[in-house]
Amino acid sequence: xxxxxxxxxxxxxxxxxxxxxxxxxxxxxxxxxxxxxxxxxxxxxxxxxxxxxxxxxxxxxxxxxxxxxxxxxxxxxxxxxxxxxxxxxxxxx
Length: 93
Hints:
By secondary structure, the protein is mainly beta. It has strands at residues 7-15, 24-26, 31-43, 46-55, 59-63, 68-70, 81-88. Strands 1, 2, 3, 4, 5, 6 and 7 form a seven-stranded antiparallel beta sheet that branches. The two termini are 14 Å apart. It is 0% helix and 55% strand. It has no helices and seven strands. 11% of the residues are buried. It has a domain at 32-92. The protein is globular, with a radius of gyration of 14 Å.
């Protein structure tokens, strides 16, 4: 039984880029790692949201409406991040 939830999601005001310090965070009893986030392409008046998810040790995929493909850019290059999903490192899928 975990003392902390296996997953934590944060809805944030859209930020540009993903700083390295946002990739993990620790509480007094658990350590979390970033496993997914939303990204927005376009302007504030229109555009497209995609999900970016981590599978395995460090392989990131971009999940759009009809396609899932390996990312060809660094996650730090993401344009407008709006939601972030973290996994408790003690939780095994």
